[in-house]
Amino acid sequence: MSSLSQLEPRPVKSSSNTQDDIVYEHIFDAILEQRLAPGTKLSEEALGEIFGVSRTIIRRALLRLSHEQVVSIRPNRGAVVAAPSVDEARQIFAARRVVELAVIELAVKNATPESLQRIRAMVQEEQDAFARGDRGSGIRLSGEFHLELAHMANNTPLLNFQRSVVSQTSLIIAQYEVGHQAHCSFNEHEALLQAIESGDPKQAVAMMKEHLDHIEGKLNLDNEAASTDLHVVFSGVVKKKPGRSR
């Protein structure tokens, strides 16, 4: 797994983002890029020190992540990055298949030249990341490709569910992937875009089924990954820490 000291964090989407939003995005990115391993303890004190914010802000960000089921909050024991069991992993993949097939069908219906251009640029970024050996960024962009498809589908409930299952899938891959392959091939992503452009929902759905088969086929649901350290993961995130606030 890559250290954040070697990666640039995703740019803040808006200057109106609150400190809660910024902390949430950094932790979400670290999970999506597999820099935070399943089972990692998310100490409020350590995260508050890392980001230079109050524990109240950290607590709100962790609660938001728990709603997406990528963080588990245990009574009187604190928060940890979720570590799906083998049975849970299979259930999550089954749920992802349902939502992905609905998303791709709607994406065919609602795609615009602008949305296709935007997502194709993302696929190129993904390819460039893997080509330069930046696996963490490549994994994040792979996940964001699927989130962008949900944006293209123009269905907010599906987008929210997609965000949760994509990040949970990243946790599963961190635990169970065989070797260090890219779990979402950018070649397959490009083929999916071509299917969307063709306007044929049956073709697009068939290709998405095949794509998800390839992702799941790279997993060995017997092995588990080691955990990591919060200070290492976030060592390069906040160069100038904001003042503490509540």
UniProtKB/TrEMBL annotation:
Organism of this sequence: Oceanisphaera psychrotolerans
Source superkingdom: Bacteria
InterPro entries recorded: GntR_C, TF_FadR/GntR_C, Tscrpt_reg_HTH_GntR, WH-like_DNA-bd_sf, WH_DNA-bd_sf
Domain HTH gntR-type, first and last residues per copy: 17-84
Protein name: GntR family transcriptional regulator
Coiled coil: none
Assigned keywords, A-Z: DNA-binding, Transcription, Transcription regulation
GO function term, MF aspect, one: DNA-binding transcription factor activity
The organism's taxonomic lineage, starting at the top: Bacteria, Pseudomonadati, Pseudomonadota, Gammaproteobacteria, Aeromonadales
SUPFAM superfamilies according to UniProt: GntR ligand-binding domain-like (SSF48008), Winged helix' DNA-binding domain (SSF46785)
